[in-house]
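Case 336 in the screening queue. Each case pairs one protein sequence with one candidate compound; here the compound is adenosine-5'-diphosphate. For every case the pipeline is the same: read the inputs, emit a complex structure as tokens, and attach any notable structural observations.

Predict complex for case 336.
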Amino acid sequence: ADAHSEAADDSELAVEGALRPTSLAEFVGQQKVRGQLELLLQAARMQDRPADHILLSGPPGLGKTTLAMIVAHESGRPLRLSSGPAIQHAGDLAALLSSLVPGEVLFIDEIHRMARSAEEMLYLAMEDFRIDIMVGKGAGATSIPLELAPFTLVGATTRSGLLPNPLRDRFGFTAHMEYYEPDELERVIRRSAGVLAVDVPPAARAEIARRSRGTPRIANRLLRRVRDFVIVHGDQDAGATEADVAAALELYDVDPIGLDRLDRAVLDALVRRFRGGPVGLNTLAVTVGEEGETIESVVEPYLVRIGFIGRSPRGRIAMPAAYAHLGIPRTDGALE
Ligand code: ADP
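Case 336 output:
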């Protein structure tokens, strides 16, 4: 849940870059999506044209940016990185699109946060590789058409439900990224441990995987904290033990099933303060002092996935597994 704080740290970002696989073959898991992308890229390659536009949706840290880089790499095309929040006016997008070289892959992260005016420009650009530039105002305004170089748009979003249908419909292929299974995370960890040159035996790998919230980015981050712990407190020849993993991650407030401080704060508020709900998401967000968007795109999806939170028409409710994890008996009525 603290993907955001990590983004501020340049050296951690550099490490993240070093851990990115550069080919589909190296990309762990998401077998379905990989197969679909492979076909799409191969067809484009055989016809020597840019691949269709691709939309990747799913929670942060599941590999959307990595896949965009792989799309560019595997099709031998340059890659341009941008993001929805950086496109606040149609003019921002016009500048970006008109500077693309033929066949370039344009990655727009958090595409649901792009300005509305830019969205409309993007429809035409995606469909016809053309935009209309408005000059002048009022009755004297005219639009000047501008031809663009053909490109492949790769959009990423944590909230595909927020994309307007006309935009969603213009992607030739939409992939929903799923949380990773423990054995897949173990493979991510094994690969990353190799890159970082730390010895993480299988038992420790499994322990890190269990605590990674189904998310490769978190697995990589926890691995780095375990590495630190082993360097300082452990036996570097023996490598990381399960006890090292447990001690290191406890220090960073990661519990045995991978929930962090914010996850637990949300559960705690839901169970104690709101007596199991139902409660609206924004109320919950305010109670734990976080933005609704973070709760909705980062915290909630995983808690729903592991059966701790349910969605009802009147709001979020705590499920029995959440009570069990917090060690709170389920009683109807006053808990405080
Ligand atoms: P997103 O864009 O979805 O937030 P990223 O592509 O930035 O996620 O991935 C976060 C980190 O997790 C990167 O360091 C990346 O190397 C790693 N990662 C993500 N998916 C995979 C995967 N399938 N196999 C190996 N590493 C992965």
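Case 336 observations:
- Residues 1-8 have pLDDT under 50 and may be disordered.
- Residues 16, 19-21, 27-30, 60-66, 156, 188, 216-217, 220 surround adenosine-5'-diphosphate (CB under 6 Å).
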